[in-house]
Specification:
The structure is a homodimer. By secondary structure, the first copy, chain A, is an alpha+beta fold. The first copy, chain A, has 7 helices and 26 strands.
């Protein structure tokens, strides 16, 4: 991770436990309720979530970002606090959640393990970004515990999952509503995205495997989706736009997007501090804008505060797999942690962390997307946000 | 339909376009903001949705219901309006949406058409209520138009669906939150349900068929889910509790529920006024309480305002199919409307209505669940709420 963290090129937004909107600024936070030099009023910054700011629209986001760059370094003491020790909550009210399956390497890995002998990609995979809806009520912020879920593991057998897994993903937060009955093309969808978070899409592989035909993942994934507390504005990531993988067949009309459509964000998966894999979101076959265009293609629209995520990001090389299922060959080859213990799946007490950052590029210093980290407590245990 | 409509045994709740909570009372509505004799305060009744009332909990719901029965007939003029002409909005803020697949006859019909030669039921079907998450942002109230959705119909082909369908369902509105990390068993889940609505789960069969492997329905269903405007309290339906179909194998622990677990609500599907089918929810294999228990079994919890629906309800006899796909044999045998026109699928301009009621039973007069009705406008057309 070669980045300057939360510097002037970054300026991500979060919300503290008093409902104040904050901006991360080097080792400090700026409390925008007390900040000077911003046009947007304090009612927006004290509203308990970013949604009121989303509703002001892209022009206000750009103005605020520009003003923050100018005034971040000279805020009064009452607007500044050390970042360590600030309690961050989930920074936006989540409307709907969609999760895609946009990494070709991940989709191929899963098909090879789950449906051996069949086509490595589902029929529609190259023609549209396959996805499903998740559960908004269980989107939790980094620092909140995850209890091992119970469920029906196979016919007649109920119990705690023995195959608890994680999925390394990047998530996109919708800032501008697309009304019901309207749609946006991939060429214009980016303007509806406010920013980016890191996502851990927790998965119970045994529950998922038994339940998913024919309606897809349900309880195997609905128990928890962890997100990072700092929403990095999409504008901050402009230096990391890169060409996406070649798409063949060419996408249908609404999915066509001019290059560069990719985004080179690095993601690292750690269990109890041991790095297990590193991958870049640049390899995603379907871009964020293509995912968002797809969500609206049928007139469903999206609302400010909706979250959509890439699905697990895996690369082609060993050490770039975005889930334990892929890293361990469906549990057969456990990974070894720094303390010598082995894991086929996540154990009770484990802390799983995904870190995200961008490497220096084209004159831009690197930046940090922070981390999303959760600890697993035993089935039925109390879940706290720390 | 042999029922007394909205009489003293019913007392369903709705919300008008001024954000006032109403109760349907015979041919009138009672505006609870102006009603007399209720303990619950006017701030709750003027809050724009039923969610504030949900938050007061089951004791307040019971007290209010009891008070309404006593005072409904003697409200002052300013609390009473003719029901015709009242503009009703979606009566609750929807959190998460889940849709089940709880009718054995429907699941069997679909499997026979879509996966001929394979098992008529998916592997897990008899062991748990299979379901998926839907889109809360497109839950619309009766009277709102549905625009024909476009999508990828098959590889490389984009356009308006040519196989627009409907699904006759019953929906359940969660009134009492189950916190994340907790679960409720089927034996105790009913107390978390506030009431019942009629649901039309619009479906584009070509979009759905192309996209659904392996993650389930997505854009084929996300464009619209219509609900009836009157939420009938679960308490009003006590006389229509009936034994459910025998369950073999016996359900696992958290899905066990004492009889009578079924609910005998009649549902009739009409297109442009022509009745096409009639079915009872009494035949559902998995009950509402079993569905809700399943939703929480993994610790996901539910929130007040969450909506879960049964999935299409079909019976075993001809004329009890809950979708056009089933009524027409996947489009092969069109139905004939009263004007002589034929339909394999829904046409632009069609008005699709589902009516719900309970027949007189055990001394209780019948009651009405009202209707959910939407008109289809052409792809890209403006969607209005009438």
């Amino acid at each position: 991770m070669n980045d300057e963290g939360f510097g002037p090129g970054n300026l991500p937004y979060g919300v503290d436990d008093e409902g104040h909107v904050l901006v991360a600024w080097r080792d400090e936070v700026l409390d925008l309720v007390h900040a000077e030099g911003l046009d947007v009023g304090r009612d927006v910054w004290a509203s308990g979530s970013l949604n009121a700011f989303f509703d002001l629209g892209p022009a206000a986001w750009a103005t605020t970002r520009s003003q923050l760059r100018a005034v971040a370094a000279r805020q009064p003491a009452r607007a500044r606090r050390r970042r360590a020790g600030v309690r961050l909550v989930r920074p936006f009210d989540v409307g709907d959640v969609a999760d895609f399956y946009a990494s070709r390497e991940h989709a191929t890995n899963m098909a090879t393990m789950l449906r051996p002998g069949q086509d490595p990609l589902p029929e529609a995979w190259l023609h549209l970004p396959i996805g499903y809806h998740g559960r908004a009520g269980t989107v939790i912020v980094s620092g909140c515990d995850v209890a091992r879920p119970a469920g029906v593991l196979r016919a007649g057998e109920v119990g705690p999952t023995s195959r608890l897994d994680v999925e390394v993903e990047i998530g996109f937060v919708v800032g501008t509503t697309v009304p019901r009955g309207r749609s946006v093309s991939a060429a214009e969808a980016d303007r509806h995205i406010f920013g980016v978070v890191l996502v851990n899409d927790w998965s119970a592989r045994d529950i998922q495997s038994f339940e998913y035909r024919p309606l897809g993942p349900f309880l195997g994934k609905s128990f928890a989706t962890s997100v990072s507390p700092w929403v990095v504005p999409l504008a901050a990531l402009d230096p990391w736009r890169v060409p996406g993988p070649r798409q063949d067949p060419a996408p249908v009309g609404y999915l066509r997007q001019p290059e560069p459509r990719g985004l080179d964000v690095r993601l690292r998966l750690e269990v109890n501090g041991t790095p297990l894999s590193t991958v870049s979101s640049a390899g995603l076959y379907w871009s964020a804008a293509q995912q968002l265009a797809h969500l609206t293609a049928n007139g469903a629209g999206v609302r400010a505060g909706d979250l959509f995520a890439s699905g697990t990001i895996s690369g082609a090389e060993r050490g770039s797999e975005g889930s334990l299922m892929e890293l361990t060959g469906n549990g057969a080859q456990p990974v070894v942690l720094a303390d010598g213990s082995r894991r086929s799946w996540v154990a009770d007490g484990d802390t799983v962390t995904i870190r995200g950052w961008c490497e220096p590029r084209g004159g831009a210093p690197g930046l940090s997307l922070g981390e999303v980290s959760s600890t697993v407590v035993p089935c039925g245990g109390e879940v706290l946000c720390r």
